[in-house]
Amino acid sequence: MEIKHNSLTSIALQKFKKNFWGVFSFWTIVLIGVISICAYLIAPDSSKNANQMHLSIHSKSPGFKVKILTIPSNIKSDGNFFEKLLFGNENLDAEIPITSYHVKDNFLHYTEYASDSATGLQKQVAISNFPKNNYQDFIEERNFLFGTDKYGRDYLSRILVGSRISFFIGFVAVLISLVVGLLMGSSAGYYGGKVDAIIMWIINVTWSIPTLLLVIAITLALGKGFWQVFIAVGLTMWVEVARVVRGQIISTKELQYITAARALGYTDFRIITKHILPNIFGPLIVISAANFAAAILIESGLSFLGIGAQPPMASWGAMIKDHYNYIILGQPYLALIPGICIMLLVMAFMLMGNALRDALDVKS
């Protein structure tokens, strides 16, 4: 009779797979991650930061359609595929929303789109401006699935590109918090005494400062910008990691296998990294999932206050800030869509964290 010996990791993985909401949240996070990486490849507006403005069609409702005339600049962009994947296309062509057009005397005559039933300006452009005089390929009917924002930018594209900041800030912030938290927490828990007292004093002082206030102070010290926000959020989230690591090491360092490791002459660094930390990964995974969600909310709050990602960079929090007054102006979706995106991503991380906690609980 064959006896199967399952490791604790495989048992935890089997328990996690049985949790419907945990698995669903995991694949939701994976989907959002893929979308954020390939945002410029799937966004209708692949320009840098999806910042192609058409002021004449601002604040249009979802499903709005209009003809777009593209006048080529005959200047080629030098960016390669990876630059376009990471930063988008350098859009050098002029895009003009139009209502009608006709050709006369080798000129394309068109009427610009004008809102509120007004008559648009009538202009003309020489047919020779288009490659091989083929102007038909430069007129298309564009469908704005999520409508346009107050600057006439494609809102779906802004949502897709904005997912990058909300998604990747979780990774950067959690990585920074793990590095600092593991260093401080393991030192305090393993050595104790004065080392523990000093580190706990630093932890308590940092803990007593409101998180948002501390992030604002660090952001103002480092300056406004993309990476400054990532670093600021990460430097405020290490306290919880340090407290958990310290508590786990205090309860683990007196066990027999740690005493045996000391008797064999192993160094403190090897004991901590090889024998203690691998056995406390369970609580760290759970708290990291919670920190992911917290980092997304903090970044959204900072962007809403205007000290997060700076315009024209797309950010869900900044999009809420730009359009929250539209809630009472009859177009609440401009603020609700990014708000719902934030809610779904945060909820996915929280549900996955709860599923991981249940799966890693040895008592269940």
Automatic annotation (TrEMBL):
What PROSITE patterns is this protein classified in? ABC_TM1
Tell me if Transmembrane is a UniProt keyword of this record.
yes
Segments forming domain ABC transmembrane type-1: 163-353
Any transmembrane segments, and where? 20-43, 165-185, 197-220, 280-298, 333-356
Listed A to Z, the keywords are:
Cell membrane, Membrane, Transmembrane, Transmembrane helix, Transport
Gene3D superfamilies assigned: MetI-like
> Organism's domain of life?
Bacteria
Kindly list the places in or outside the cell where this protein is found, as annotated in its UniProt entry. Cell membrane
Bilayer topology: Multi-pass membrane protein
Annotated family: Belongs to the binding-protein-dependent transport system permease family.
- Name of the protein in question: ABC transporter permease
Please report the organism this UniProt entry assigns to the protein: Winogradskyella alexanderae
